[in-house]
């Protein structure tokens, strides 16, 4: 399983990549393995300002639906348009083409409460 060092991770198995005051969010390699084949990604929060840990959407796999939680507070600016036609990108490339949303960060200090790659590895028992 992959755990890119430049990302931060949550206990809900989301990852976040910070670039200035913008962030990209998706689910981890571990999460997509646990869920199985992803068939639909539902995000209806574009333009919304959400608080850390608020639900920003859901991901549907063959056997289950799982809520997606925002790692830090911010405004949802963009949803990955490729996921409409190809939700399986979350399985094949969770840290690249399978990203879910981009947001404008409202409280960068919240990043301090997220896990590093090593901490997340320990958390999932990898």
From TrEMBL:
All residue ranges annotated as the Lipoyl-binding domain in the record: 22-104
Chloroplast as UniProt keyword: no
Pfam families linked: GCV_H (PF01597)
Cofactor note: Binds 1 lipoyl cofactor covalently.
PTM annotation (N6-lipoyllysine): residues: 63
Highest taxon of source: Bacteria
Gene Ontology terms describing biological process: glycine decarboxylation via glycine cleavage system; protein lipoylation
Residues spanning the membrane: none
Secretion signal span: none
InterPro entries: 2-oxoA_DH_lipoyl-BS, Biotin_lipoyl, GCV_H, GCV_H/Fam206, GCV_H_sub, Single_hybrid_motif
Cofactor dependency: (R)-lipoate
Database matches in SUPFAM superfamilies: Single hybrid motif
Function: The glycine cleavage system catalyzes the degradation of glycine. The H protein shuttles the methylamine group of glycine from the P protein to the T protein.
Protein name: Glycine cleavage system H protein
Organism: Arundinibacter roseus
Higher taxonomy: Bacteria, Pseudomonadati, Bacteroidota, Cytophagia, Cytophagales
């Amino acid at each position: 399983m992959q755990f890119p060092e430049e990302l931060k991770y949550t206990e809900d198995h989301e990852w976040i990549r910070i670039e200035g005051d913008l962030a990209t969010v998706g689910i981890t390699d571990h999460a997509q393995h646990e869920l199985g084949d992803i068939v639909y990604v539902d995000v209806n929060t574009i333009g919304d300002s959400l608080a850390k840990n608020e639900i920003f959407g859901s991901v549907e796999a063959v056997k289950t639906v799982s809520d997606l939680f925002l790692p830090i507070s911010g405004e949802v600016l963009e949803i990955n348009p490729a996921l409409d036609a190809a939700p399986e990108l979350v399985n094949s490339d969770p840290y690249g083409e399978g990203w879910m949303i981009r947001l404008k960060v409202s409280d960068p200090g919240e990043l301090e409460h997220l896990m590093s790659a090593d901490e997340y590895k320990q958390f999932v028992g990898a």
